[in-house]
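RECORD TYPE: inverse folding
INPUT: structure tokens
STRUCTURE:
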């Protein structure tokens, strides 16, 4: 019997905790630390357990850092320095994520690798495939995590809960909401459709699975 995504991510903090606090390493030293965004915790932990990568340990920074991309580079640097002595290698499971190349430069200086791509929407779909969407400048993307945390990451930070009149100003040039699904979850799809209705956008569903994230972690796991 194949394990479900839920089975593979038991004992994981809820989405609110991953947003606000992140995830500390389990206290055990290992050969590889995956230092990730809290928004990727469920997918990474599922891949680690599915593949039996027992030599990997996951730690996550708060997902809310995506609301403040200028703080990501410093937070990653602090975490790398904090945990470096415990692990043989550290892999940073962030893409550029709005840092304008600063995160890649810092990872290079620290001697750690990071995942390729401009953001998680790209590597979930596959960077090559995402790059071929030349007509999607008016698309707004959500992942499983962002569907769950739509109010925390979109509705409230943009002030739409207090000033609904801002909707046209902020989203007037968008035409569709693209839901990149990592899991085949009917309830999440319904919620994503509701997000599109709230934003007054057309809805498009794409099942991406783990995309390039799976290959990136496999490369880290197998690298000597």
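DESIGNED SEQUENCE:
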């Amino acid at each position: 019997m194949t394990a479900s995504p839920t089975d593979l991510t038991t004992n994981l903090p809820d989405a609110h905790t991953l947003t606000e606090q992140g995830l500390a390493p389990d206290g055990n030293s290992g050969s590889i630390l995956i230092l990730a965004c809290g928004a990727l915790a469920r997918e990474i932990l599922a891949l680690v357990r599915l593949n039996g990568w027992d030599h990997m340990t996951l730690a996550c920074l708060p997902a809310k850092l995506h609301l403040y991309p200028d703080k990501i580079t410093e937070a990653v640097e602090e975490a790398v320095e904090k945990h470096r002595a415990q692990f043989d290698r550290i892999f940073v499971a962030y893409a550029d994520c709005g840092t304008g190349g600063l995160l890649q430069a810092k990872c290079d200086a620290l001697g750690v690798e990071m995942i390729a791509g401009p953001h998680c929407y790209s590597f979930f779909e596959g960077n090559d495939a995402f790059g071929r969407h030349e007509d999607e400048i008016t698309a707004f993307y959500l992942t499983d995590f962002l569907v769950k945390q739509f109010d925390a990451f979109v509705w409230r930070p943009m002030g739409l809960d207090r000033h609904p009149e801002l909707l046209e100003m902020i989203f007037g040039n968008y035409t569709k909401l693209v839901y990149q699904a990592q899991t085949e979850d009917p309830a999440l799809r319904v919620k994503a459709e509701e997000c599109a209705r709230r934003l007054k956008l057309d809805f498009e569903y794409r099942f991406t699975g783990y995309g390039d994230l799976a290959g990136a972690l496999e490369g880290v796991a197998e690298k000597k």
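NOTES: Residues 179 and 205 are 5 Å apart (CA to CA).
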